[in-house]
Design goal:
This protein starts with 6 loop residues before the first helix and ends with a helix. It contains 15 helices and three strands. The protein is mainly alpha-helical and about 400 residues long.
Length: about 400
């Protein structure tokens, strides 16, 4: 069976898994919302796999993996806090619509040359807003509220960053993308949002290497990033605190080290196979629904399941890299690579922080963590990837028709 044909059987397995899981939780507490989610979440997966390929060529495996992770987040959230799950399910639906829109945008617009300058202006304007009307959370001022709904502009700007930088790099125009990237990073530093700044910087640097192949300048960029990290360490007290807790969380068990210690204890208590869905003590972790949701997954489903989740992210990165390499234009190849790098870096940063491999930075786990802006932006990145993949399929079909015509 070819890789691209794995999407449909995987979709059936995902549908069965989540229907059974939500039904178990419904039988535990007999809430009608659990019964509704038992049907709604799997149906969103089925609709995505069966309807989208009829509209345009789609990577069914990538869709199935993405849907599995989104549904996993809703399942874990429903078990720990049903209110979060209802909100996340709504944003999942909105995100799927946004994903389809992104696919159509990539297919219809193609070059984006006329849009990059307005996107740059809007992006910088959005990043300024938290500095003016935002509220500080865990040391960073990267949110603001509209009508009671929290918005994180940096999640929206991710999409613009990938498109703008890919367009200018494809056109070999160095100065515009450099000025834009530096402007975004400067505003993120003012917000003290160093986790997102790391994602932006890493994505920009890797895209530059992909477009130029220059090891020397890329190495210089890595050195500059290390210098900026040291500067952030000395400038911001919350960064110093996170590094200290990473080195020895037991030194401040009742305060700053509390969440990482309980996260590691939850992972250890789950063992290989987990304590079971609906069991364990996920609420002992202060931010179990965002930063430490991977620890909750490992506690309830076990380390083996947690490793499978990591392999799903690896598969998404692999499919994204394959799509980028198959692209016919440098712009589409760089855009697909940018989406892949952004998702891959974010996954590594948050899971590495949860497992105490690196200091915790506070970014969300793509598709899984609670957060409407994050979920929608991650699905939009998948939409951009799917858009490039569909163009690749169109080009392949056109080449096949041309070859058949010539042979006749």
């Amino acid at each position: 069976m070819q890789t691209k044909d794995l999407g449909r059987p995987l979709s059936r397995a995902v549908t069965f898994f989540y229907f059974s899981a939500f039904m178990l939780l419904f039988l535990r507490d007999f809430r009608w919302q659990g019964l509704a989610l038992a049907f709604a979440v799997p149906m969103l997966n089925v609709a995505t796999i069966h309807i989208l390929p009829k509209l345009f060529p789609s990577d069914k495996l990538l869709l199935s993996l993405t849907n599995f992770l989104c549904a996993l987040g809703i399942l874990v959230l429903y078990d720990t806090n049903p209110t979060y799950a209802y909100s996340q399910a709504l944003y999942y639906f909105v995100g799927l619509i946004a994903m389809v829109i992104c696919i159509y945008v990539v297919r219809l617009i193609r070059s984006f040359r006329m849009l990059v300058w307005p996107m740059m202006a809007v992006s910088l304007g959005l990043l300024v807003l938290p500095l003016l009307i935002g509220q500080e959370t865990y040391g960073a001022t990267n949110w603001f509220y509209i009508g009671g709904i929290s918005v994180q502009p940096s999640e929206i700007v991710k999409l613009c960053l990938v498109i703008v930088i890919s367009r200018f790099m494809a056109d070999r125009r160095f100065l515009p993308w450099l000025v834009f990237a530096v402007g975004c990073l400067g505003l993120l530093m003012l917000q003290k949002d160093l986790g997102t700044a790391l994602l932006y910087y890493g994505t920009t640097l890797l895209l530059y290497y992909a477009s130029s192949g220059s090891l020397w300048i890329t190495g210089l960029g890595l050195a500059g990033g290390a210098g900026a990290a040291m500067l952030g360490y000395h400038m911001f007290a919350h960064v110093k605190r996170r590094v200290a807790i990473w080195q020895n969380p037991w030194s401040d068990y009742d305060n700053a080290g509390y969440q990482i210690i309980h996260s590691l204890m939850a992972i250890a208590s789950g063992g290989l196979f987990g304590v079971g869905l609906g069991l364990g003590s996920p609420r002992t972790i202060p931010v179990y629904h965002t930063d430490f949701i991977f620890a909750v997954i490992c506690e309830q489903f076990g380390l083996i399941f947690g490793m499978c989740v990591l392999l799903m992210y690896v598969a998404i990165i692999w499919r994204g890299a394959t799509t980028a390499m198959a692209a016919r234009t440098s712009f589409h190849g760089l855009m697909a690579m940018g989406c892949t790098v952004m998702l891959g870096l974010q996954t590594f940063v948050i899971i590495g922080g949860v497992l105490k491999l690196i200091p915790l930075t506070g970014v969300t786990m793509p598709f899984v963590s609670y957060g409407g802006t994050s979920l929608v932006s991650s699905l939009c990145l998948i939409g951009l990837l799917q858009g490039v993949a569909s163009l690749n399929e169109d080009d392949l079909l056109e080449d096949t028709r041309l070859a058949n015509y010539i042979s006749e």
